[in-house]
Amino acid sequence: MLIANSSILQNWLCLAVASYMNKNYASAANSMESFLRFGTENDRLKPHEVSEGVLFMTRIKLKQGKNAAALKYLQKNEKKVLDQVKRA
Q1: Does residue 80 contact residue 51 with C-beta atoms inside 8 Å?
Q2: Does domain 9-80 have CATH number 1.25.40?
Q3: What is the SS3 assignment for the chain?
Q4: What gap in Å lies between CA 74 and CA 22, rounded to an integer?
Q5: What pLDDT digit, counting tens, does each position of 43-60 carry?
Q6: How much is the pTM?
Q7: What are the extents of the domains in the chain?
Q8: How many CA atoms lie within 13 Å of 69's alpha carbon, on the beta-carbon side?
Q9: Which residues contact 27 (CB under 8 A, 6 or more apart)?
């Protein structure tokens, strides 16, 4: 299904989530990279979808034990993340 419809973004996202839930983090990372790349090439993703994708990709890197890479990725994509923490 993914090969036949590789341009359908939901297929990449579904594969990423399924791989993540199956603890196959390498596959999840590859699928999320494809999802974000195809989605941002033609502005097919809304800003909140890109934001959630960046956060999910960060989570995948953390699950892989790549803490430094996760931090670097998050810092590189900081402007794409819409979530904010407000301190009292």
Answers
A1: yes
A2: yes
A3: CCCCCCCCHHHHHHHHHHHHHCCCHHHHHHHHHHHHHHHHHCCCCCHHHHHHHHHHHHHHHHHCCCHHHHHHHHHHCHHHCCCCCCCC
A4: 24
A5: 899 999 999 999 999 999
A6: 0.87
A7: 9-80
A8: 10
A9: 15, 16, 19
